């Protein structure tokens, strides 16, 4: 759906800016999308700084924070968008229809991106970033409409504990012992039976079936943060509670990491707590600087990216065909760009990052044009 408005700020949307105006959340959403593009499209995939790539297995890098941050933001946005509708006693039936339809649309767009650029249906992958966003949004939105914040907290905690116990106590079938190695764990075994299509890593997929449940908890933690943001506490109290809870959550996750390693590919329980804790700390800091102190300098690029967040994410994949796949003079544009920079003396990793930043700017141009014309595309 494409909407056009004469307002200075975008219309309310669950995956886009919400009715309770939080400039900090709008900006954080946009900068998260920009970070996604930055790490997804390096100039040279063989030369990337550690922090700009996913950890191979256990551990945590800047890149590993991006997806859980976005799920956390979705959770916050769900609370901000639907709390007011519940207060007005809007029919739940209509809300369910929109929630399901939006989830289906996001999943469908994810499938479209998976088919780019060859559209080879014989080698199709049924999972991905947008697929996970679709499921987490669906689960969290339905939960929000039917549970209290305390029930949501309990559901999240129990889910993480059950997931931990399952992966650390149940032996991997066919192996005979508990395993948490790539492709040899309960999650990968379950996918081998029930996940259709091609797996991203051959024998396993980072967006697996079972890991969808703890990833939904990342959204739940965002909903709990959102509940705090619309509470009757003063702004300073909100910051204090948000950052204190974020610090406690991150520390708890680090402690859990001693027995259940922080791992994005498995979306372990410790990973959920560490990343949600960091997300709460960052949101609290940005909220304090922007919404309380009024320091909005530097937030505009994030707001522009965030105004059409999913659209920009999709656009980046489409534009990557021109900037990364098509050959000009025997080489793609990214190969030409990185080669030119390395010839000037740039470190290959710096050249790769510089081209990625250039591609982020390329995507900013249509995002800015849409924002300036007050066009906001909602799935």
**What is the succession of H and E elements?**
EHHHHHEEHHHHHHEEHHE
The N- and C-terminal alpha carbons lie at a distance of 6 Å
Number of structural domains: 1
CA radius of gyration: 21 Å
Protein name: DUF1624 domain-containing protein
Keywords: Membrane, Transmembrane, Transmembrane helix
Pfam families: HGSNAT_cat
Protein architecture, described:
64% of the residues lie in helices and 4% in strands. The protein is mainly α. It has one domain. The protein has a two-stranded antiparallel sheet. A two-stranded antiparallel ribbon has the order 2-3. The protein has a two-stranded antiparallel sheet with strand order 4-5. A hairpin with a 2-residue loop joins strand 2 and strand 3. Helix 2 crosses helix 9 and helix 11 (309-325) crosses helix 13. The longest helix has 26 residues, at 62-87. Residues 2-12 and 16-20 have low confidence and may be disordered.
